[in-house]
Amino acid sequence: MKLFLFTLIIITTISCEEPAPKKVLTSEEKTPSLTTLQLKEQLTEKGFEIFDYVDEKTGDTILMQQYFIAFLKRGKNRSQSKATADSLQKLHLSHLGKMYEKGYADISGPFGDDGEIRGITIYNVPTLKMADSLANSDPMVKAGRLEIEIHPWWAAKGFPLR
Questions:
Q1: What Cα–Cα distance (Å) separates residue 161 from each residue in 116, 118, 144?
Q2: Are 66 and 52 in contact (CB under 8 A)?
Q3: Which residues are 150's β-sheet partners?
Q4: CA distance 51 to 31
Q5: Among residues 73, 76, 98, 80, which one has the least CA distance to residue 148?
Q6: What distance in Å separates the CA atoms of residue 68 and residue 72, rounded to the nearest whole number?
Q7: Dist CA 54 CA 56 (whole Å)
Q8: What does the pLDDT look like over 43-56, one tens digit per residue?
Q9: Within a 13 Å sphere around the CA of 82, how many CA atoms are in the beta-carbon half?
Q10: Which of 39, 110, 146, 157 is deepest in the core (most CB within 10 A)?
Q11: Phi, psi (degrees; rounded to nearest 5) at 21
Q12: What's the pTM?
């Protein structure tokens, strides 16, 4: 009888314990890391401009990729009503969110002053034509509230902002 009670207590205790939380995998853990050669091949196949060099200090191969930085400048048509401007702003933010979700844009944001350049978006696409098309599909640009100026921009692949 004692053995039965002891077993029952152990089973009850174990069944009441919360299961260990599942580990959330990062994107790096979900897919194996690519070698520099594999990444170069993948980017080249997609049409990206790249080059690499060896860092003399570390001996690491640094892969550079061409991105496109879009400057969002004050447009000529800024006479919309407040309600229209607010609506355009919501559509603008939605557009930028979609660009990020689809992998076309890596980072976007406004400038902190009230200058002619209102903000930037860095497009992670293979061609200037594609970046220009995506940037000009922004509802704020279509309405003339913003204008786009795009430049090719090189950055080391995989390096985070700090």
A1: 25, 21, 31
A2: no
A3: 70
A4: 24
A5: 73
A6: 13
A7: 6
A8: 999 999 999 999 99
A9: 0
A10: 146
A11: -65, 145
A12: 0.76
